[in-house]
Amino acid sequence: MKQWQKLAGSVLFFGFVIFSPIARAEEVKITLLQLNDVYEISSLAEGKQGGLARVATLEKDLKKTNPNTYTILAGDCLSPSALGTAIVNGQSLAGEQMVAVLNAMGLDFATFGNHEFDLKYQQFLKRLEESKFTWISSNVFDKENKPFPKVEPYKIITIPGKANTTVKVGLIGLTLDSNPADYVTYKAVIETARQQVQQLKGQVDIIIAVTHLALAQDQELAQTIPEIDLILGGHEHENIQQWRGNDYTPVFKADANAKSVYIHYLTYDTQTKHLTIESQLKPVTDAIPDDLNTAKIVKQWQDKGYQAFRAQGFAPEEVIATTTESLDGLEASVRNKSTRLTELIAQAMLNAVPEPDLAIYNSGSIRIDDILYPGKITQYDVLRILPFGGEIMLVEMKGSLLEEILEQGIKNQGTGGYLQTANVQLGPDGKTFFINDQALDPEKTYRVAINDFLMKGKETGMSFLTEQAPGLKVIGKEKDIRQALMDQLKLTYNSKAINR
Ligand SMILES: [Zn+2]
User: Fold this and answer.
1) How many domains does the chain divide into?
2) 299, 323, 349: which is the final residue of a domain?
3) Domain ends where: 299, 329, 346?
4) Is residue 2 assigned to a domain?
5) Are 61 and 192 within one domain?
6) 181 C-alpha to center of ligand 1: Å?
7) Same domain (yes/no): 408, 473
8) Does residue 426 lie in a domain region?
9) Among the residues of 370-416, which ranges form H helices?
């Protein structure tokens, strides 16, 4: 449909791009500010990284230079976050804080991430209602296959050029189905995109897919639908830039929690129909001042949330430990394997109860879906890791019951029902279990540290696991799992005498 000139986005320059020195009247410039996977409204890493008030400053500066600036969020913002679990006026915030801040920041468009559907239906509808920005989703619908209220299947923006020209930009939104809720219908990503693009073709000059997909799906999208000019994605949490397909469609993802944002400078020549894209990954650091209005809203919500946590006995700002290694809490990791973070939680459980043989918890209790890089870790970070909390229980159970639980845990791989453990080993055959290097004995009784959620019989395939289960006896309920993890972090990182 048109000719392309997609330039490689360069990562390491900051400031503004100088285009051709002889500006032609037909060149229309559009600036896109992209962020994705934003769970926290304030900055992280001791205030050094991220922070939506800083993004708001960037946005204002870009708008001063080019009024045709649009801010786009490529999914995941309403959940999960520690602040979202804070109970204010008898209800969890559940993303209310995020919508308020994104409104204040001046977000223009967003598509759904998989985590938007962590919310209960009524919470989700309220967030849509509160949003001053436009949600775009081409493939996610309600149970009756209808669009959710105020959600558009695509959006056409008309950008005025000089000399009576206009450039039309078509936006589509695509989301993967990894956290399906019972109130949602997902349509096939590639097929839906193809249909949507066919519809837009001829009506618009530029087609942009705002996606929240796994990278492989974004690549497929770029390869199979050449009409898409630019893919602004999310989900991986680490910045990515790739070019795929015969016409080198760029795929961009910024870092989670606005640790970075992407700025895309588009120049469209209405005469030649050339599109040039120059992209800059911009780290969001304390070098960028806060936008005062947005900062005020951030502070209001943070104060509300922190007050709720203090009422529960937490001191959110307190630094617990300084870690020397990365703690991986990404769902893609913890729902499939153990990481240093899952080991620390399991160890914390062992240390919280007297004479345990092993520890078990569901990986779904880890909600941070992020990596904590080496550095100071606060109580708030622990609330981010385990926002639901809950008691660690000590139970005695027969080996046969334990085996059944562990087997189901493996069947649940890839979901929150995948079990994390301490002192449990899996044999090379992939089905024989060892407890402390001894083959699991179905007749023996084991002392198990287990999180209280698992004892409620609500985990996938584990309805048999309750306090009344035959072969099981509750010995005691110990401390909250968040407190146990804080103690463990202190023990592991604050004392050189302790070896791990
Ligand atoms: Zn995601």
Assistant:
1) 2
2) 299
3) 299
4) no
5) yes
6) 14
7) yes
8) yes
9) 379-385, 399-411
Residue 415 confidence (pLDDT):
87
Asked whether residue 343 falls in the same domain as residue 255, the answer is no
CATH of the domain at 460: 3.90.780.10
- The alpha carbon of residue 331 and the mean position of all alpha carbons in its chain are separated, in whole angstroms, by 9
Torsion angle, alpha carbons of 138, 127, 125, 139, to 10: 10
Q: Is residue 50 part of a domain?
A: yes
Cα–ligand 1 centroid distance for 302 (angstroms): 23
Extract the tokens encoding 182. 């019972």
pLDDT tens-digit map of 104-121: 999 999 999 999 999 999
Cβ contact 374:324 at 8 Å: yes
Q: Left (φ > 0), alpha (ψ -120 to 50) or beta: where does 30 sit? A: beta
Residues 320 and 274 in one domain: no
CATH number of the domain bearing residue 161: 3.60.21.10
Q: Ligand 1: distance of its center to the CA of 4 in Å?
A: 30
- Would residue 290 count as lying in a domain? yes
Q: Whose structure tokens read 């453990």?
A: 421
In sign, the C-alpha dihedral spanning 400, 405, 409, 412 is positive
- Are 286 and 365 in a shared domain? no
Indicate the residue type of 195: Q
Bridge partners of residue 281, in order along the sequence: 262
Same domain, 182 and 104: yes
Residues with CB under 5 A from ligand 1 (ion): 76, 113-114, 235
Distance from Cα 145 to the centre of ligand 1, integer Å: 22
Place of tokens 């590639």: 190
Distance 179 CA to ligand 1 centre (A): 9
Ligand 1 geometric centre to CA of 234 (Å): 7
Confidence of residue 431 (pLDDT cuts 50, 70, 90): confident
**237 shares a domain with 107:** yes
pLDDT digits (tens, 9 = 90+) for 167-224: 999 999 999 988 789 999 999 999 999 999 999 999 999 999 999 999 999 999 999 9
Distance 276 CA to ligand 1 centre (A): 29
H or E element in which residue 223 lies: helix 215-224
If asked whether residues 450 and 386 sit together in one domain, one would say: yes
pLDDT tens sequence across 473-495: 999 998 999 999 999 999 999 86
What are the pLDDT digits (tens) for 282-328?
Answer: 999 999 999 999 999 999 999 999 999 999 899 999 999 999 999 99
Distance from residue 235's CA to the centre of ligand 1 (Å): 4
DSSP 176-209: --SS--TTEEE--HHHHHHHHHHHHBTTBSEEEE
Domain of residue 351: give its range.
314-493
